[in-house]
Design brief:
Elements lengths: L5 E4 L6 E4 L2 E4 L7 E6 L3 H15 L3 E6 L1 H11 L4 E5 L2 H8 L3 E10 L1 E6 L19 E4 L5 H12 L4 H7 L4 E2 L2 H9 L5 E5 H5 L5 E5 L12 E3 L5 E3 L3 E8 L5 H11 L2 H9 L8 E5 L2 E2 L5
Length: 292
Amino acid sequence: MRTSTVLTLTSLAAVSLAAVAGCGSRKQSAKPLLVHVGGTMRPVIQALAKRYESRTGQRIDINAAGSGELLAHIQLQKRGDLYVCHDPFLDILMKKFKMGLDAWVVAELTPVIVVQKGNPKGIKGLKDLGRPEVEVWLTDYRHSTLGRMLPTIFAKAGIDFEELNRHKQIPTNKSGGYVANMVKTRNADAAMCWNAVAYLRRDAVDIVPLPPEHLPTPGVDAVTSATGKTYTLTPVRVTVATLTCSAQPAEAEKFARFLASPEAAEVFKQFGFTACQSRKLYEKGRPTRTAE
């Protein structure tokens, strides 16, 4: 397997499967599915795609970038079969661009604090991030979903976020992976990122969870995202949607259902995502009764 902007996951061995007419050789699809995957979800989708291909013979191409960047690509290029993203981009795909068919929530993302291995600065929570000797990196307050959530998160911990920034120069980057890597390379003492981002670096960082009372209240706290959409904070859903531009809608739906399966849910959990009950949010472009 080779890794690039587009990751082509090609099976190397034949696997016997039971066909409708009986037992026979695995049929390999002549045309791969193109799956647009937000960067945070790339590692887990790569692993699931490899498992799916080895079982079915269906080839999967993964186009990985930021969820918002991919949404713009889908809208302009009208290419691809599935879109894996986190909030708030699914609703934009469905309601504004009307380019999604069926969609499921498959996992959730939860913000955490990452600190250097062994936690040498003794960081126990958000208030410790304001200490003068603690060098902190955060995600961009305008161009990242977590960055937009930060004022609410700090306020629930009794911290005035604007006042904190006036007294302490806190560098930011729109990538959670970037700020987590600053801690991993010991160029920072702490950072805030998604739990799945932190989990991938668990060999070099420690994770300090936020208490539930410091997380936004579902259905109550809301924020205006970088896209201009106001959405409810927590939980931040990870979703998969089939696209109207797909040339293989039946195969796209099969892979989407696999990503929404209990088997896939266990893999999401293994990659550090917050587990949730998978449910269908849209059907044929319309919200279902289980949609939030």
